[in-house]
Fold each of these.
Amino acid sequence: MSGPLLHVGATVFCAHAGQAQPTTANPRVLVSGQPIVTQSTSYAIAGCTLPPPTAGNGPCVTAQWVTGSTRILADGQPVLLLSSQAICAPTGTPLLPTVTQTRVVGL
């Protein structure tokens, strides 16, 4: 797994077009002037279009990353990459990082 590092300003959506934002960031490491995000960070999701129970099992509310960089750590935690994978709760669907900075790439 390799790719650009995710940062606070990255564009990340749930599978149903909800906007996902990190709940915390690592202020010690900056890319493009913004803090990076590590695997231990959960994401809050707003605007998910999946219907609530009886019509569906949504909307997506939070997400947790299950993969991160295998070689780059920040404060002992793997940093997130554009290719990292996350699972949304309560739906079990993925997060989709779509736009991030491209100057810093990791493995």
Amino acid sequence: MSESFKLVAPPTAAPLDPGFRPAVLANRNFREAVEASGEGVDVAIALERGDGSVSVYRTRAFAPDSAQAGANLQYAERLVKFLLWQRGGYKVIVGGHSQIAEHFARVYAADGERAFDHKFMGGVYEQEFVVEGVALEDLPAQQDTTMALGRHLDGNRVGFDLGASDRKTSAVVDGESVFEEEVPWDPKNQSDWHYHYEGIKHSIDRAIEHLPCVDAIGGSAAGVWINSRVLVASLFRGIPEDDFSAHVKDIMVNLGKEYGVPMVVANDGEVTALAGSMSLEENGVLGVAMGSSEAAGYVTLDGNITGWLNELAFAPVDYQPDGPVDEWSGDMGVGALYFSQQAVGRLAPVAGIDFVDEPDLPTLLERVQQLHLENDERAQQIFETMGVYLGYTIAHYADFYDIRNLLILGRCTSGHGGPTILETAQGVLDREFPELAEQVNLMLPSERLRRVGQAIAAASLPEID
């Protein structure tokens, strides 16, 4: 970060991460400085997606000839990074500030600092990723749409959720789960697509054994899914590109044909939010699943979902200059490193927890959770640190979503971890964001729903003809 872009130490320090610098505090400090300077100008950022829909975000920045204009670049780059992973787009159009547009074009070029984002967004929308600068009046108009998702409870259904460390499956009859199972697997490190195909089919078949018949199958998984086709997903990272195109993109479509029933697969974050909305019988829900990575989804105030990506695992939440780096995207301070078992793995040695056998992350999480159940103060500090992260990040998310209910679930919230994270986050909101604390209900579902809620909600995705 440039010295001209001020980072703000949080009043509530993260116990195991004193360098944590919340995005929300830096962004708000920047905007206040712009207004106080009398040198602010309007800036708008439009993100265009493959279906022609457009999201527009409006903000303010220092004029290009201001002595403080250098701060614009850091603020705007982190802002666009967040918007890209929240809303998605193959084209970023900057209105009203050529300096910022030129900076984006360099940073998000195919050989730029954000080459990962350039390639990823181009792959998602199957078009070349570009950045353009235009006059403010020439910015395209907003054209966002929403759509209904799931909530179909009739008949005999299978629901599954594909995580990085396990597959969760439910057999559901008229909205009631009659069978649930979790099966460990390691999809990210497998190069043979048959491993994924056979694993998914095994879980579906196991659920079908507990139904008189199967009328529909619904699933959730990390990544970008459009019409049940996977365009990009960490679960399939190890598969060569040729095999991915030939066998994986349509893997769910082909499985649906094999079973001869309606089959719908959606992003796991969207299904998380749907699960929350269904269980609460309320809308305006942001769901955050803390598992092998961070998954997020949003149900609007009218009960629909957006056409956005909502891949907040790659959205920055911490601006500290020497923060942890995501091994896939190569970026620093992104959500996956703060709200997942990766966060537990990163914080455990800082807390003084080391295991001689160096277990994998799922096993390490289980051991830390067991220590927490035994009132180990080191484990307590890990989950309190994640709670501080969450409190400030909820305020950050609220600058981009209209939130009435925030639901957290996933493996990291099992045992005492979830209540500790939630209680700590609520304290941050109460002390530092009191208006937001009154508006947003922080929710933690039951232990059972935390672990298999996504699979049950996923079963409601298809409509039976």
Amino acid sequence: MKNSLADLDVSDGDTVTAEQIPLAVTAGPILYEDGSTQTFDVGGATTYVENGRPTAGEWYLGADGRFCSFWPPSYRACYDLRWVVENGYITGLRFTDGASVSVGRYQ
């Protein structure tokens, strides 16, 4: 995880602002609770790995300031992002899409 996250003054559950999204998702590889992983490139590429199988996609900041992803050929999804903060340190992100929540921690 990049040291630049240490400079942010956020609490657990705080919204990741549109300005913070690029820093938040590119800060380091994410490990989800189900064991899958995801990396985000500063150029907008992302790779999601589930059961050893990688899937390439793209991430971007939506017009409404939300985190969005595109998975070819046609799947698009946008999420609200919230910080995961433990013992005063940012440890990950919560991706929320309606009632669905995925928690990922920086590796």
